[in-house]
Design a protein that fits this description.
The complex is a heterodimer of chains A (125) and B (288). Chain A has 3 helices and no strands. Chain A has 125 residues and is an all-alpha fold. In chain A, α2 runs antiparallel to α3. Chain A is flat. Chain B has one domain. Chain B has 11 helices and 2 strands, in the order αααββαααααααα. The chains are: A mainly alpha (125), B mainly alpha (288). The interface between A and B is medium-sized, with 26 and 26 residues.
Chain lengths: 125, 288
């Protein structure tokens, strides 16, 4: 049993080392890398020009996204905190047991705000 | 003697932090600077980027970023070293094996985390399943904790700063829930749960609706796990960076304290949610 587990760990670490070494072994030559870089640079320039014309509306949208999300998130977290604090006020000895579910609830409510934040940062280049 | 050694360690770490902050901010093409950008030679960076190719985020081509992969490997190696050092306790014999440790060391840290996590898992899943899934959840917790905390050290990035890393972790949980659910309850029985509570021919519209809802919620689970962790770490890292840019001494400290809290809470939330998903999949209380 112990030997099987050791063999498994050794095998896993070997595969991991091979994955790490693969890009170095399979690297492109310098000339091919330079040609690929030129084509990428041209595409990049065209995209930059397109972005500048849209960036005003995108900035407004991103700002509104995060603002509304933060507003709703703050309201929700406020209600969770109020419930936890009232529970502690009624029964101070239970504050240890109330702390963990409160943190969990706050984190889950905050995760919805984080989804909106992620969308907002994807909008703004 | 121990006092001197401790002071020496603190001095060495402070010196390293000062040196790291003194490096000028090198911006590679879109890649986040970290201490490894100065250590790894330029050829290797370019070879890695060329071999891994381009990535696309939100329909736009981004240059391949390897700093986060490097940080993930660093976090992995740190956790591996920590676990190896902590497991020295198991090789002791006689009295030393059962007496608790005398001071706060790495074994005590592992013991604290294991105890808390196993307690939470036993509450949610029951003792038998908790023992079975404990290695997976503990590894996830340690990797995420180490990856998050590394972001607070100047010169390092949080490995979970990147959507790729966190969604990969979410998909690990996704595959574990489905594979173990099928293993526990059988292939047909497990997927019959997707059809909802009533499974007869006259409830066909309900079954179709339930199937759609269950599919969407099952796909939303790993994605939400990943995005939650990514958003928290990315936002926190960016805010600390902005506070650093003000160049007022000690200004980022309150934000870094908040960062410590967020790191720990996000690890806890990730692990508890994944435990809840696994518990739902392998639950045996089936009155059907």
């Amino acid at each position: 049993m112990i030997k099987a587990r050791k063999a498994l760990v050794v095998g896993f670490l070997t595969i991991f080392a091979l994955c790490m070494a693969a890009p170095v072994a399979l690297a492109q030559t310098d000339a091919a890398a330079a040609a690929a870089a030129e084509i990428a640079a041209e595409k990049e320039y065209a995209k930059e020009m397109a972005k500048i014309s849209q960036s005003g509306w995108l900035g407004l949208a991103a700002g509104l996204t995060i603002a509304i999300a933060a507003f709703g998130g703050a309201l929700g977290q406020g209600k969770a905190a109020v419930a936890a604090l009232e529970g502690i006020a009624r029964n101070p000895a239970a504050s240890g047991k109330l702390f963990t579910p409160m943190i969990l609830g706050l984190a889950l409510i905050e995760s919805l705000v984080i989804y909106a934040f992620v969308i907002a940062i994807m909008m703004v280049p | 003697m121990k006092q001197k050694a401790r002071l020496l360690w603190i001095g060495v770490l402070t010196g390293c932090c000062v040196l790291l902050c003194a490096f000028p901010a090198l911006a590679g093409e879109g890649d986040h600077w970290s201490i490894f950008a100065s250590i790894i030679p330029e050829n290797t960076l370019q070879n890695f980027q060329a071999a891994w190719g381009k990535t696309w985020i939100a329909g736009e081509e981004q240059p391949a970023r390897i700093m986060h992969i490097v940080m993930a490997v660093v976090a992995f190696i740190l956790v591996l070293i920590g676990a190896t050092v902590a497991s020295r306790k198991f090789k002791k014999t006689g009295d030393e094996a059962v007496l608790p440790e005398q001071s706060f060391g790495i074994f005590t840290f592992f013991e604290l985390v294991s105890d808390a996590l196993l307690g939470s898992m036993t509450e949610i899943m029951g003792a038998k399943h908790a023992r079975k899934f404990f290695p997976l959840i503990m590894s996830l917790a340690l990797f995420i904790l180490c990856g998050n905390l590394l972001g607070l050290v100047p010169g390092f990035l949080p490995a979970t700063d990147n959507l790729n890393t966190t969604i990969a972790l979410g998909f690990i949980v996704f595959f574990v829930t489905h594979i173990y659910g099928v293993r526990e309850q059988g292939f047909v029985h497990y997927f019959a749960h997707f059809l909802g509570p009533i499974r007869s021919w006259y409830a066909l519209p309900l079954m179709i609706l339930m199937l759609a809802i269950e599919l969407i919620s099952h796909i939303a689970r790993p994605v939400s796990l990943g995005i939650r962790l990514f958003g928290n770490m990315f936002g926190d890292h960016k805010v600390v960076g902005i506070f650093l840019a003000f160049s007022i001494p000690l200004l980022p400290l309150p934000m870094m304290v908040l960062g410590l809290i967020v790191c720990t809470v996000q690890t806890l939330v990730f692990c508890l949610l994944s435990v809840a998903y696994i518990a739902l999949a392998v639950a045996e209380a089936d009155e059907h």
